[in-house]
Design goal:
This protein has 92 residues and is an all-alpha fold. Helices cover 72% and strands 0% of the residues. Helix 1 packs across helix 2, helix 1 crosses helix 3 and helix 2 runs antiparallel to helix 3.
Length: 92
């Protein structure tokens, strides 16, 4: 595998976490608890994308391959939990 192929494969691996993290960071001011957000858009997006990539990495490690639906379910659960923590959901 050449360097271009590696970049394309890594981009395809990270793309779901990137899209979900950025869209959730964009939508977070309109979600419940959005008025208590302390972090900027880029900080929220970075934290959510990082959490999503970690979740996909755990799915890759656990199943031995990428693209399992359980990995994507874990991605959604982890990113939603990270958004809940950023919005201070435990204080309610």
């Amino acid at each position: 595998m050449g360097p271009i192929d590696l970049i394309v494969h890594l981009g395809g691996f990270v793309a779901p976490a990137l899209v979900l993290g950025v869209f959730l960071a964009l939508a977070s001011p309109w979600l419940p608890g959005g008025d208590r957000l302390k972090y900027s858009f880029w900080m929220r997006a970075g934290i959510l994308v990082f959490a999503g990539v970690l979740a996909l990495g755990v799915g890759l490690w656990g199943f031995g391959r990428d693209g399992k639906m359980a990995s994507y379910a874990l991605l959604v659960a982890v990113v939603a939990s990270a958004q809940w923590l950023l919005a201070g959901g435990w204080r309610r």
